[in-house]
Amino acid sequence: MWCKDKLGGETRNGTTHLHDHLKICQARACRKVSVEKYIFDQEVVRKELGLMICLHEYPLSMVDHTGFRKFCAAMQPMFKVPTDILDMHDVQRKSIVKYFQQLSSRVAITTDMWTANHQKKGYMAVTAHYIDDKWELRSFLLR
Predict the structure, then answer these.
(1) The pLDDT of residue 1
(2) What is the DSSP string of 14-34?
(3) InterPro entries of this UniProt entry (predicted)?
């Protein structure tokens, strides 16, 4: 709340009084006010959440933290924190298995181990390498 003024909120009042109050409210005197239409898109938010987790090397489990869930509810009550990450993983795994079953070439598996700078946790990536039907070397990160 910016100020302590209480303004009417009934439908017969309209919104002109709210707009007029924004112009004269001392608590907002030094801020420019603009009103924009915003359409909430769950998929866009999920994508941005995933990018944020990758960019900052946060653990996937952060979405289960009580504080994170409260923060999301305060920012946008319509946002439902993804709980289907394991289902998404299972779908991807089945797709990869099916893909490799159809390959006519052999597959070499390599590993890469590293420690994240910010978390001091060790990670291991498993990558599949193979030559496709066009004789091009392909690599596929196994998740």
Answers:
(1) 45
(2) -SHHHHHHHHH-GGGTTS---
(3) RNaseH-like_sf, ZnF_BED_domain_contain
Alpha-carbon distance 140 to 109, whole Å? 10
Ranges under pLDDT 70 in the chain: 1-2, 11, 13, 26-33, 57, 83-89, 119, 143
The pTM (predicted TM-score) of the whole model is 0.43
Nearest to 132 by CA among 111, 112, 105: 105
Question: C-alpha angle with apex 36: 31 to 39, nearest 5 degrees?
Answer: 135
Answer yes or no: are the C-beta atoms of 44 and 19 closer than 8 Å. no
Look at phi and psi of residue 31 and say left if phi exceeds 0, alpha if psi is from -120 to 50, else beta: beta
Q: Which pair of structure tokens corresponds to residue 28?
A: 């907002």
DSSP bridge partners of 123: 114
